[in-house]
Amino acid sequence: MSSPSSLKLLAIKSLLKDEALSLSALKTLPMELFPPVFKVAFDGKQTNILRAMVAAWPFRCLPVGALMKTSDLEILKAVLDGLDLLIKQKAQPRTCKLEVLDLRNSQHNFWKVWAGTEDVECSPDVISERQSAVCHTIRRGKQIVTVMMDLSLKSRDLCKSLKYFHWWAKQRKDVVQVICEKLEFGARPVYKPLKLLEVFEQSSIQELEVNARWDLRTLAMFAPGLGQMRNLQKLLINEIFTPLEWFRDQEMKELCFRDIISQFSQLKKLKNLYLNGVFFLHDRLDRVLRNLESPLEILAITRCMLSEADMMYLSQCLSVHQLTHLDLSGVSFLNLSHALLGRLLERLTGTLRTLKLKGCKLMDFQIGVLLPALSQCSQLVEVNFVKNFLSVSSLQKLLQHTANLKNLTLEMYPAPDEVYDDTGDVMPDRFAQHCFELLETIRGIREPREIYFVSKRCLDCQGFCVYDKEASLCSCWE
Prior knowledge:
The chain is of the alpha/beta class and 478 residues long. Helices cover 35% and strands 16% of the residues. The chain folds into 3 domains: 4-130, no CATH class; 149-154 and 161-296, Leucine-rich repeat, LRR (right-handed beta-alpha superhelix) (Alpha-Beta Horseshoe); 369-472 and 474-478, no CATH class.
């Protein structure tokens, strides 16, 4: 015997075989049937029916993005044509309530439950309550509909669907607002990224990730848009390089630095900041952090060059005293005061959960200054000291100062200097012996959960020799 949902699905498919009848039936279609009918029409790419259903959609939000597994220009055009019909209606029917077109890949449960793939009894009121309550009133006035989207741009050029949407939205800026909370660039664009932003309410962007290796010129051209993202909470910039022709043009580089750094004064809402391989921070860190209105939660400045003045500012900055995550991996302390790093840790003893100091070139005489503060960071869950130059004695002291860190679940330490021969190669027997001794040191204090001792690159296997609490001999990681 067929279930009620199966019978309903058969009836909907039968109805949609006759397009004219389907379009006529929309006028009297109960609102609880709109989702299942829309989904079947969507799966069948019945664009004329989709266009009419968007214009007559009886709920406040249409989460069509959850149905778009791949980019389909014809489906997108049909949905946007439906919005145009809605916008042109001078007197909207009482049943037409659409305010938000959601193009994000979210709200899957709406379609699973209310489009009939799960047997759940529901009333129109319950359906309405299950809709997203998110509504961004960024721009007040006469806009009729809000379009919500997240963008992850993996290609160097825009796909046809996004080009079309950009053109469509640009023509309708007076009646449509486009909200984009998350924007990610995964490739260096051949288009102008600043032009892409012109259709968005830029103050709606809360997360921006530049994961591609942009050149300095592209980032400088994009900077005015960054300054408009006044509600940005997460910023990630990964590797910026200088165009070859600019290497000796210091004046041009300084102009770009000024254009970029000046925009940080507008980013008062930042909570999470990740800067990796960003070479323009030197002597400018204060201008990046000084305008924040609330404390940062995550600060990751990695593979960057900082000055003594930068570290002095960081150790005193009001915006970092509640960090839960601090990552300074790849920041060399060969010429920086390690005491300032100790002072910074002293301010984070009550909040810090993750500490990463990988490849900071810390030495025996420097690590001791950090230990008193480190031992008080009772909330620490993860530490990483790999690729620093520490002896067995210093590592033993470091491990002994973790006695109070009961929440540690992942610990990564450098193999001691004594495991290398005169040419810098790993001596496997000595590696295993010293790491075993260090493991016994920490077991005398507490039982580690996940702990690794990692060497420099091993010339024999071209990997990294690693010793963990389960190993009796070294293994090799790439």
